[in-house]
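Hi all, long-time lurker, first post. I run a small reading group and we've been trying to get comfortable going from sequence to structure in the token notation. Rather than ask abstract questions, I figured I'd post a concrete chain and ask someone more experienced to write out its structure so we can walk through it together at our next meeting. Sequence below, copied exactly:
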Amino acid sequence: MSTYKDVKRVTTHTLLEMKERGEKISMLTAYDFSMATIVDQAGMDVILVGDSASNVMAGHETTLPITLDQMIYHAASVIRAVKRSLVVVDLPFGTYQGDSKEALRSAIRIMKESEAHAVKLEGGREVLESVNRILSAGIPVMGHLGLTPQSIYKFGTYTVRAKGEDEAKRLIEDAKLLEEAGCFALVIEKVPAKLAQQVAESISIPVIGIGAGADVDGQVLVMHDMLGINKEFSPRFLRRYHNLFDEIKGSFENYIKDVKSKDFPNDSEQY
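-- Answer (accepted) --
Happy to help. Here is the structure in token form:
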């Protein structure tokens, strides 16, 4: 009889096979051991240790402040929980842009110190040198195009990207450049569904969407958003599968009430 420990690991090659046979890829963020255990045992294909930890774990307004050391801490916590999922870790802002040697050093630190399976970075042709250098060390790279949150101050808004013809053309070109460089997959964020479909059909590597429609190879969401822990964020593309903010808050309120009323602990809950 097989057990959970015998489960087969998802690899970068697994994802390519899934795209080839038309099986959709499920991807979700996680940042700590306890939640990653649940995500992995649920059967998630890919766990992203996202720089969104800057927002949902540390309370920053953007993803920019989180450091490489902090990303490694979160990634190592997740890795200890995982038996099945492919674990991809975001390279944080400032660790790969403009200096490919720094990019390689950053990626090596993530792989060695957290034991993660791959890294992800944002951008197309402007980060191609960094992508190539990281890949040359045998480290799998996932790309990220469309809305790239690390560039929020450049864009000035979180609105849909690549609605114009020029930006759409550039996005398709960048996707092909990342594929040719050797990226194993690509995240496309908040672009028109038709464009995302066009990208997915024009390259052989998996395209995982967030706010990019249904006709890509998989989907990714931020755990805190889809569980309703974070109530402030309500974009059109988000489907809330729970309302944990209110449920957890209610549990805390009941605990406070039981403590105050001396109902907890009762006779059966003490020694």
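A couple of things your group might point at:
Residues 244-271 form one domain.
The longest helix spans residues 165-181.
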